[in-house]
Amino acid sequence: QVQLVESGGGLVQVGGSLTLSCAASGSISSINTMGWYRQAPGNQRELVASLSSVGSTNYADAVKGRFTISRDNAKNTVYLQMNSLKPEDTAVYYCFIRNRYATVYWGQGTQVTVSS
């Protein structure tokens, strides 16, 4: 069984920064991609950023230049550094991992609220 534990969410003012962390544990086959989705009330879940095992990154247009994704393979942990936060970044952020068999695991979600 795979478990993803997220941390780092919270309340921040416009223009502030937060760093989300997601640590994976359990029966993990080779991790291919790690990343983050988010879901705001009334919206569909959307990809924020992803990072492959070979270092390829993918960012949503809305966060390019403000968010940075990174990973520590030894710790099976993925991070999301979020700078210059905007009210529209308010959402529940979910981390995910995709292993080499294309199985996807999800974290429980962490709330990020940006106040203006």
Brief descriptors of the model:
single chain, mainly beta, 7-stranded mixed sheet, 11 strands, 59% strand, globular
Q: How is this structure best described in words?
A:
The protein is mostly beta strands and 116 residues long. It is 0% helix and 59% strand. It is built from no helices and 11 strands. It has strands at residues 2-7, 10-13, 18-26, 31-39, 46-52, 57-59, 67-72, 77-82, 91-99, 104-106, 110-115. The strands form 2 sheets. Strands 2, 4, 5, 6, 9, 10 and 11 form a 7-stranded mixed β-sheet that branches. Strands 1-3-8-7 form a 4-stranded antiparallel β-sheet, with no helix packed on it. A hairpin with a 4-residue loop joins strand 5 (46-52) and strand 6 (57-59). It starts with a strand and ends with a strand. The mean pLDDT is 95.
